[in-house]
UniProtKB/TrEMBL annotation:
Biased composition (Acidic residues): 46-55, 66-78
Species annotation: Candidatus Brachybacterium intestinipullorum
Chain intervals for the UniProt region annotation (Disordered): 1-81, 232-262
Protein name (database record): DUF3710 domain-containing protein
Top-rank taxon, per record: Bacteria
Cross-referenced InterPro entries: DUF3710
Pfam families per the UniProt record, alphabetical: DUF3710
Record field: compositional bias (Basic and acidic residues): 56-65
Length: 262
């Protein structure tokens, strides 16, 4: 496990909770926008490989049986973030997103070798999952902002591959690719957004897929509205967290924000 850092958010909260699952702010793991073109080309190759699998195909060997509901999770050393339990991984940096006005934790970014996996868990109704509706809203939002969005089969079911326009410092427009994963669980919905070099690196992509399959969602028993963010908190002191940084991250390390709901 690497660094733990706190990331402040200054944007106003969305109606219905701090973060709605169809509103995303992406962290590219430290890659600058000059790399967006290379990532955009590479993600096409990675997405094509993902499309070779189907929802009915056997679960790939590199995946565990999760993401888990708390009641079903096997014993493993994990970082307690409240609504999410994250396995410790060598070389991983944990970046927590914190709303500056409310001090509420709104998400976690798991950063490994230049790529970032943003993870959040939301309450879901007993009767049905959320991913289909959330995916449609995300796709419409990206297209409305001048980007592209395509659904493709992946290891956890249907994924959304997006390219969102980003204004560069020189005034030109580049495109930031991202891979959205959605998993419907037992009264919860987990959203994971992968950005960075892993989009074009199959080995790195599988590493993050394994990480997703080891996550644990702690839904709790309290009543919550559908799409409400399951409360999270900062991790306590643990042996794997060697350094603590406070304050906002470098704004150049931030990826695109999806702020409109179609």
């Amino acid at each position: 496990m690497g660094l733990f850092s706190r990331r402040k958010r200054q944007e106003p909260e969305e109606v219905g909770g701090p973060r709605s699952p169809d509103v995303a702010e992406l962290d590219d793991g430290g890659a600058g926008t000059d790399e967006a073109g290379e990532e955009s080309a590479a993600v096409e190759t990675a997405a094509e490989e993902a499309s070779d699998s189907t929802e009915d195909a056997p679960r790939p060997d590199h995946l565990e049986d999760g993401p888990y509901d708390e009641a079903d999770a096997p014993e493993e050393d994990r970082i307690d973030l409240g609504g999410l339990l994250v396995p410790t991984v060598d070389g991983m940096e944990l970046r927590m997103e914190v709303d500056q006005r409310t001090s509420a934790v709104t998400g976690a970014n798991l950063v490994i070798e230049g790529s970032s996996l943003q993870v959040q868990a939301f309450a879901a109704p007993k009767s049905r999952g959320l991913w289909e509706d959330v995916r449609t809203s995300l796709r419409d939002s990206v297209v409305k902002q001048g980007g592209t969005a395509e659904t493709r089969p992946g290891v956890f079911g249907t994924e959304l591959i997006t390219r969102l326009p980003v204004k560069r410092a020189d005034g030109r427009t580049s495109y930031r690719p991202a891979r959205f994963l959605g998993i419907d669980g037992r009264r919860w919905f987990l959203r994971a957004i992968l950005t960075g070099k892993a989009l074009g690196d199959p080995e790195q992509s599988r590493r993050f897929e394994t990480l997703v399959s080891r996550l644990v969602v702690v839904r709790g028993t309290e009543a919550m509205a559908p799409q409400e963010l399951i409360p999270m908190h900062l991790p306590g002191e643990r042996p794997g967290l060697s350094q603590i940084r406070s304050g906002p991250l470098d704004p150049l390390a931030r990826g695109p924000e999806i702020t409109e709901i179609g």
